[in-house]
Amino acid sequence: MGISCAPEIFQERNQENVGDIQGVLIYFDDLLITGNSIKEHDEILAKVVQRTKFLNIKFNKNKVQFRVPEVKYLDHVSNVAGMRPDPERVKAIVELKEPKNKLELQRVLGMLNYLRRFVPHFSTKTAALRELLEQKVEWQWLGLHSQTFKELKNLICNAPVLGIFDSNKPITLQADSSKDGLGCCLLQNGQPIAFSSRSLTNSEKNYAQIEKEFLSILFAINKFHYYIYDREVEVLTDHKPLV
């Protein structure tokens, strides 16, 4: 019950209140204050406190954390080393049982999809499961699907720590393609910053392999455009004919 657009209005109002303060991230009623040093963090915090005091906004002291070296935010855990999935979210995925119908599979893929940024070639690895959701495909859970399901759980359970992007460090794009999809990774000094992938369309599946490999590079450039715009970038590919 309630006004359907209330969350959007609440988010917009919070943005108006403190969204202009650099270093403050807002997601509904969660405020995350960041800083490159304790001094910078405290200066930003002081601005937030001053602003909210002026607006007569009060905080629940039991839900406030100060100067924490590690924080759980939006089902992710972040610290100076980078970002990893929230262990509670991972535990929930590991404990998932095999779906018994298309509706259950949709829910499972939804949970997995939330953490796809941690899984290389996520689209390719989920292709067999997604095919079961096609309207013309009759539901039939086979050994292939069980194996894929287990592999995805294992990948989530052993997800790498994604580094924090640093505009002062060199940038590397790694791109690759398979018969079902495209995959890419943004790296800095060998550490992954983010993974991304997508499935190939029916027409793209008919491309020559060299065309698919080049398409994966274009996909990587478009996907990580925000990070690489106006920067020198090293592109890695394992397809020698393309080089």
TrEMBL record:
Any Pfam family matching the protein: RT_RNaseH_2
Span of domain Reverse transcriptase/retrotransposon-derived protein RNase H-like: 145-235
Keywords: Endonuclease, Hydrolase, Nuclease, Nucleotidyltransferase, RNA-directed DNA polymerase, Transferase
Limits of the Reverse transcriptase domain: 2-74
A GO term for molecular function: endonuclease activity
Segments crossing the lipid bilayer: none
Keyword ATP-binding: no
Keyword Ubl conjugation: no
PANTHER family the UniProt entry points to: INTEGRASE CATALYTIC DOMAIN-CONTAINING PROTEIN (PTHR37984:SF7), PROTEIN CBG26694 (PTHR37984)
Protein name: Retrovirus-related Pol polyprotein from transposon 17.6
The organism of origin for this protein: Araneus ventricosus
Encoding gene, per UniProt annotation: pol_4330
